[in-house]
Amino acid sequence: MKPVFESILPLPASSLKAFFQEKDEFDAPWHFHPQFELTYILQSSGLRYVGNSMEHFEDDDLILLGPNLPHCWKNMEQNIHKAQAIVIQWDLDLLGKNWLDQPEFRGIKNMLALSEKGIQFSKTVAREIKDHIIAMPETAPFEKLMCFLNVLKTLSEKDSFQMLCEHNFAIKPESLQSDRINSVYQYVKQHYGEKIKLKDISSSLHMSEENFSRFFSKVMKKNFFTFLNEFRLNIACKLLIETDMQVKQISYSCGYETLPFFYRQFKRFKQVSPLQFRLTYHKMGNPELN
């Protein structure tokens, strides 16, 4: 499956696009576009896909994406509240050709170069600029641009961030084939709690096992079962945080056949045991436990 190309039209009288998004759930497919994008999740949770990265997201998720880097946010279940986000998109020549070569923008230029792999900023950084981000969609064009440049400057001075992709994952528009990757996401979302065989997923896409394996590894830079394991572990993290289910029950509900294997995979993925992971989050939410 290949990401869907999205054509973004600039708003009249403005050199960048900033808009508030509110939906029952985030429903955009895995897609890409030639613009940079800064997305702030105000309210929602689920799984975030950027290139070949797949991680749990929640409120105050702040992500900077480079051009043609495929991405989407997906809710795993129906949320009580609306899914809300602020999205800002802009072209490389925002202020004209070579504007980033000016010395005043050196820090911003370096940050945007890193964004080809996707950047996640810490919640502390996100909350520092939150009010400015929220105000931007309703701000007049000139003030919006000034606010945006100040946001970029602030972010470029922070060192509390992480890269999301191991590789440069930008997609060339001419390389588009189909929506197979989105089909893989949907299949795994529906069947992750079951035993999934390579022949099951490949036949659902009308491909041979060999062709599917080659295709998936080429597009995602990882094999399918690594992707499936990461998906299941992200679901397990969500259940550990949001429910009181026993670890054994979570393990089986996520498709793991034995508890010891789940423990080994979880510790390799998170560097802590499932119980330690749950306790850490409970302490974060209840200072009296610290």
TrEMBL record:
The cross-references to CDD domains, in alphabetical order and at most eight, read:
cupin_MtlR-like_N
Q: Is the Transcription keyword given for this protein?
A: yes
The record's GO molecular-function terms, alphabetically, read: DNA-binding transcription factor activity; sequence-specific DNA binding
Supply the Pfam families for this chain.
HTH_18
Q: Ranges for the HTH araC/xylS-type domain? A: 182-280
The region annotated as signal peptide is none
Keywords (A to Z) from UniProt: DNA-binding, Transcription, Transcription regulation
Task: Write the protein's name.
Answer: AraC-type DNA-binding protein
Q: Which organism is it from?
A: Mucilaginibacter mallensis
